[in-house]
Amino acid sequence: MVGRVCGAAVGVVLAAAVSSCGTVSERRDDVRDTAVAFEKALSDGAYDRMCTVLSPGTVEEVQQSAHSTCAKALSQESLSPGGALRLVDVYGDQARAVLARDTLFLSRFTAGWKVVAAGCEQRPSQPYQCQIKSG
């Protein structure tokens, strides 16, 4: 029985991985475009545009933490533009965009790729620490 359950679970995971929309290259391009849109909005001080690129959970967390609208809350953050995009890693519906001075984490939603965490700093032997993230 355990073998069947494990085999079924592996089958479901493989089916999910195979059914991810688009080729790896297309998904990488979509992630890159979303990361660039987020960074452009940040550089422009267009916090309302930043909010449209954030995941629903991240928008909710930002608003609840600041007791304010998403755009107003982001305007009060000390998030600096991350600079040039250096690397994009895509793992199914999850991705990481590494910039010169920042790392963004993204997830694919029905509406496309969204930023789930930004202002992320890598720490030795620990998870990233992110300024903006979902709860």
Outline the secondary-structure elements.
Blueprint: H1 2-18, H2 24-44, H3 47-53, H4 56-66, H5 70-75, E1 85-91, E2 94-99, E3 103-109, E4 112-123, E5 126-133
Helix pairs in contact: 2-3
Short description:
The protein has helices at residues 2-18, 24-44, 47-53, 56-66, 70-75, and strands at residues 85-91, 94-99, 103-109, 112-123, 126-133. With 135 residues, it is α+β, with helices and mostly antiparallel strands.
Structural summary, described in words:
It is a single chain. The chain has a 5-stranded antiparallel sheet. With 135 residues, the chain is an alpha+beta fold. 29% of the residues are buried. The longest helix is centred in the first third of the chain and has 21 residues. The N terminus is likely disordered. A hairpin with a 2-residue loop joins β4 and β5. The chain has 5 helices and 5 strands. It has one domain: Nuclear Transport Factor 2, Chain: A (Roll). α2 packs antiparallel against α3. The radius of gyration is 17 Å and the shape is globular.
Average pLDDT across residues?
87
Give the structural class: alpha+beta
CATH second-level architecture: Roll
Beginning-to-end CA distance, first to last residue: 37 Å
Number of DSSP strand runs = 5
Key words describing this protein structure:
globular; alpha+beta; 5 helices; 135 residues; Nuclear Transport Factor 2, Chain: A; disordered N terminus; five-stranded antiparallel β-sheet
